[in-house]
Amino acid sequence: MKSAKSIAAGSIPHRGKKKLALDLWRQRYLFLMMLPALVCVILFNYVPMTGLYISFVNYVPRGEGFYQDMLSAQFVGLDWFEYFFSTDFAIVMRNTLCQSLMTLLFSFPAPVIFAICLNEIKNNRVKKAAQTASYLPYFISWVIAANMFVTFLSGDGVINDILQALHITDHDILFMQEGKYFWLILALANTWKNIGYDAIIYLSAISGIDQEMYEAAEVDGATKTQRIWYITLPSLLPTIMIMLLLAVGGILNVGYEQQLLMGNDAVIKFSDVFDTYTYRYGIINGMYSYGTAVGLFKSVVSFAFVAVTNKMSRKYAEVSLY
Amino acid sequence: MVKRKSRRTAGKFIFDIFRVLFIIFICIVCVYPFWNIFVISVNDGQDALRGGLYFWPRMFTLENYEQILQRKEFLHAIMVTLGRTLIGTPLVVLNTSMLAYVLSREKLIGRKFWTLLFIFTMYFSGGMVPYYLQLKNLGLLDKFAVYIFPAMLNVYYMILIRSYLYGIPESLVESAQLDGANDLRIYAQIIFPLAKPVIMTIVLFASISHWNAWFDSRLYTNSMDLKTLQLVLVEILNQFQTSGSNGASLAQKAQMMSGVTQKSVQMAAVMVATIPIICVYPFVQKYFVKGIMIGAVKA
């Protein structure tokens, strides 16, 4: 078949080009369908990457067009990065890591436990209702979610009412005004918002477990707790590992909406993360070069995190993340 | 023997109680805040100030909703958000699903390259400032189009759809090709209908992300009449925190006369932004769980 084709197509160097052209022509509709996405990815992803250059210059918009201004700006090397490291780097990095790790502490085990408990419900209606309820926060905007936390945690909010009714405290605690509470509140808010959604993945993994194992265990007299401990959890381990690696890979991405909406000037020393910092300096204060430099630093470090964790997951679970 | 059995049943009992309590706890924590807001929003504002409004309205009224729906700014913001949701959602679904189909074709020339080209953007980007400057260069700042075009491509959605498409038998596509159907037709008439669960999932995700968007409105627009619902909501909700109890303005005093308070109106505004979501997502749930599961397993 192959040789017949090459004879028919004539001389060898021409054959490759012609075949490629023919294949391209055959796939013209495929390329046509990819075109809009290609335009988008170039305009909104790759062209902005060229703008990263302004983190090495002192970019000042002079109104001659972006690229003229960029290329004519004074080159400053790594000055913006040095400035960042010598000023706010430590605090921003601390906040990002602590918020991320604290979130992980709650948001990681919670959906696993929730999925296991949910799976034990035999009544399908109840199961579905509980699941539906648990997704609700996921679909609500951070604007509303943040307002709920601020309201409930305010001086006359529900939480203070409860704490005082239980005599844990005798005065109103202003949770949102004290930095020491911010990481915990943020972690709980993140967990609350994502628990239902994250549980879906574990539920699907649980539904993939061989039912015969449970039946065999039941015959051997294993209790429900034992079955969960010795069958469900070990079967979930690969999924848990992958989710953990994913979470570690995205450790610098802790969001920005929740910090902007729940934070205030009193807690900014604890709420400020890379993205909010970039927003404040790069956009609001108009320090384009500085904001770009901070953003570039974050992009490079998180890319490294993802690359390492992806390699590890490939090794561990023989599954690449994408 | 009897002892062991009783211990076992006791252990089972404790576990059952724990898991039931845990699920009830999660459900209450997820749903009650919304119920509480609803109760305050349909209760007389003055009466709500007395506190103790937890489970049921004491003085039912729709005055708060009347108040908030009379505000032109609020109504306009609803229209902006509705507009971007109705225009933006079909575009991102169409664009992303076409891309997913193309990248799922094994014969695509340069498939690895194109796939990497798109997936790379999930892990590396120019960052907030160059992106902002690019939108400025394109003349999109302070235009309605800034809500639509940059949101037209979402690589994460593409991956979810593509994972789903891998589950569709190749023979379906091949037999259609033998019948002389081109890729455009195969996509529109075979793939798109077959991928309904994942498409519905993306419709849900995309429409909710448009409905909930506020930061792009703050970042890329200045005009009053481009503010989205959620951004106006931020402003309405912050009024409360800044104005406090001392120094009530004339407008606030006028409100107090009518039994409507700032807080009760705020809660009504929150409900207006929440109700569409509560009405939509449970119905899409069956698709959405399926769509995510397949995406998650294959991804």
Offer a quick outline of the entry.
The complex is a heterodimer of chains A (322) and B (299). Chain A is mostly helical and 322 residues long. Chain A has 17 helices and two strands.
Topology:
The complex is a heterodimer of chains A (322) and B (299).
Chain A: H1 2-9, H2 12-26, H3 28-50, E1 57-58, H4 66-72, E2 74-75, H5 79-86, H6 89-107, H7 109-119, H8 124-139, H9 142-152, H10 158-165, H11 179-207, H12 211-219, H13 224-249, H14 257-262, H15 268-271, H16 274-284, H17 288-317
Antiparallel strand pairs in A: 1-2
Helix pairs in contact in A: 6-11, 7-11, 8-11, 11-13, 13-17, 16-17
Chain B: H1 2-41, H2 45-48, H3 63-70, H4 72-104, H5 111-123, H6 128-137, H7 155-166, H8 170-178, H9 183-194, H10 196-211, H11 215-220, H12 229-243, H13 250-257, H14 262-298
Helix pairs in contact in B: 1-14, 3-14, 4-7, 4-10, 4-12, 7-14, 8-9, 10-14, 12-14
Structure report:
- The complex is a heterodimer of chains A (322) and B (299).
- Chain A has 322 residues and is mainly α.
- Chain A has 17 helices and two strands.
- Helix content of chain A is 75%, strand content 1%.
- In chain A, helix 6 crosses helix 11 (179-207) and helix 8 (124-139) packs across helix 11 (179-207).
- Chain A is flat, with a radius of gyration of 27 Å.
- Chain B is mainly α.
- Chain B has helices at residues 2-41, 45-48, 63-70, 72-104, 111-123, 128-137, 155-166, 170-178, 183-194, 196-211, 215-220, 229-243, 250-257, 262-298.
- Residues 241-248 of chain B have low confidence and may be disordered.
- Classes of the chains: A mainly alpha (322), B mainly alpha (299).
- At the A-B interface, helix 2, helix 3, helix 7, helix 8 and helix 9 of A face helix 1, helix 4, helix 5, helix 6 and helix 9 of B.
